[in-house]
Structures are given as C-alpha cells and as structure tokens.
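tool=predict chain=A
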Amino acid sequence: MERPVNVCRPTTLAPHKTNAIASHDLFGHKPAEGFRKKARFRKSGLPGLALSVLNGPRHGGKSGAKPKSPAGTMFPFFPVILLVVLSFAGSSSLCLASTIELRLAHSRPLAHSVNIGALAFKHRVETATSKTIGVEVIPEGRMGEDRSLLEQVLAGNLEMAALPLRYTLQIVPQSSLPGMPFFFTDRRRTFRILDGEFRKALFDLFDPKGLAALAWVYYGVPAIVNGEKPLERPQDFRGLRVNGPEDPLFYDTMTALEAIPSALGKERLAQALKSREVTAVQISLDQVLSPELKTVNRFITVPFRGIDLGILVINGRVWSELAPKFKAILLKAAEDFEDVNRGYQVQQEVYALAGAQSRGLSVLWMDQEDLKAFKTRMAPLYENWRQWIGAEWFNTLSRGVAESDIY
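tool=predict ok
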C-alpha cells in the first residue's frame, strides 16, 4: 500500500481578545471537570520566564492562574517570543562549548507548541549535562520538510527530529494506530492509553529501523471548517470536497464518508476555495481562524477524527553511543517536551475556540452519539487497516480502548 507523505505547514494563529475561556474543553467537557484538575505537569526545571509563559491548563503553577498580556488578552504571545529569542541568542555559544552537539529539527513556526516544547527539551539537556551536550533547535522547516527530516535522521545526516506519525507508516505500520479515525473520543483517556504499555511497545518497533523514539508530539485536534452548512452527521459529507493533509488515513476517512478528498498546498488551496473547487478544510483546531480560511470557517466541527500525533526521534547510532547517564537525561528532557508541547497546544486551541465564538462563528461540539455514528461508518476502513497493520496489534489496542469506555 503506497503511503503519500507531505503536509502543509500551519500558519501562526493571531491573538484574539477575550475575557473568558470557552465553557467546554475540546471534547465537550467542562474544564473544571477535566483537563485543568486532572492533568499535571511533571517538574520541568524550566526557568521562571518559561514557567510564566507556559502557565496554563497543564502547568503546575497556581491553580486556575491564567497568563495575561499587557493588552488584557489571555494570549501569552510576547513572553513566548521573548523566550524563543533568548534561547536562540545563546544557542551558538552553547554548541561551541559542548562536547556532543545534537540538532533537533522540525517544520513548525517559532511560536508553535512543538518549538516551545523543543526549547524545554534543550534547556533540560544543557542544564543537566552542564552543557556537555548542546542542543540546537532548528524550526520552520529550515532543514527541510517532515519527509526529508525523517530521511536525514535515518541517514545520520541529522541527529533528531519531531515529525508527524504519518511519515513513519512505511517503516513502522503500527504507528498508524493512534491516528485511527474516531477510535478515541476523549483526549485525556487517549493519552492515558497511549502513555501506557502501548507507548513502549510501539516505540520499541523503531529500534531495528535505526531510530530511537523518545516522546509523543501533540499537534492538536483536527477540526473541519465549512462555509455552507453544519457537518453533524456522516451523510453531510457525501459529495463534499474536503482538503486536508496528504495522509492515507485522511483519504480513507473521506472515502468512507463518500466525500472527495484533496491535499492542496497553500497557494493552490486559496485558488480552489475561491473557485469553490474545495468547500471544506480539515485543519488543526488552533488554526481555524487563519485569514486564508475566512470564506469557509463559518461552521466549525470539532473534534474530528481524534488527535493528530507525531514522534520525537533520534538517530539510532547516536543514541547507542550515548552514555547511560546521558540517555536518562534525554528521556527526562523528552518528558519536559511532552508536557510543554501538550499544555501550550491545548492553550492555543482554547483561545482559538474563544475567538471563534466571539466572532459569531458556529462551533459544533460532536457528542458521543455523533461520534458513534461516524465510527460505524469506519468499519470497512478499520478492517482494511487491520489487515495491513496486523490483527494482533489492532485488536489489542481496540480492547484497551474498550476497557476505558471509549471504543
């Protein structure tokens, strides 16, 4: 089965003034019942500036504290940029003083949660090793797009990369499981499963491929934006022209819903939206207010499919040559990466939803009955992917989901 690999890089969401967090989290639960109370940061050892930047739903600061900008908004944009600037300002000297140099590349913008998480990783490693190991974070696709980054790490031309799981399907087919459409319907329980035994079992599959997997990368919750009508039921997608990532699971999902999928780049998509060749777009929730989507974001359906995950990997030879104490430090730094990445990404998604509501856009919260109807339509898709992945892997994860009252 040929697996197309390419993805459009998202744009940075502009801040939106609001005085209240949306009344529900990304899966329809009130924040007081869910993410804020139950999810906790592991202590990351970040400097005070980073702690103030990232203090939010997942941060271990004062309970309920919300960062505010000087303008009174809840978007901590200036401190994030300051953190990024300060981190990069010292990166050259740090690397020069280091015995071991690691380059960590990704394709997301400077203020994206992946980059903020990568800076947390850098801070932990360089602090814990007294700069014996230096980490250079290379964002914005400066080393190439995600597909190229994977190839470079495999070839040993790049030490580390953070990239979407869909690019690893050819070498580890089982990495498609976290992205099965409508498999998971609750973010907290999703991570409870994926951070358990499944995590080690899947990460171990990368070892013989020449990679060591260190952490999940959370790219957020996919949403569907449409300018014509709410998309509430599977039949609403029939004949709809939907643009999304060049991801085999996206294509198969749209085919199962009798929609017409495409994966156009930014410029071509703008033309297609104008000519109505494309009438709906699947995009990360934090990007739903992007200016180029203003003609199609009248109706926002969320969550759609589940969550979008990636993986933080290091070249296998580089990993094997590290002393055990350094491996332990990198694994702790990977925990920091996950905590900061997840917390900041969720924060941006909440702000995006609040901004959509303040602009009068229609936000459809898919409840359990809605998701069940979509899941039923995915039965042929599940069977096809079960055959390709392996029945044992597919069925084991299915049972784990069922035991958590999600499946």
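The first helix runs from residue 35 to 38. The radius of gyration is 20 Å.
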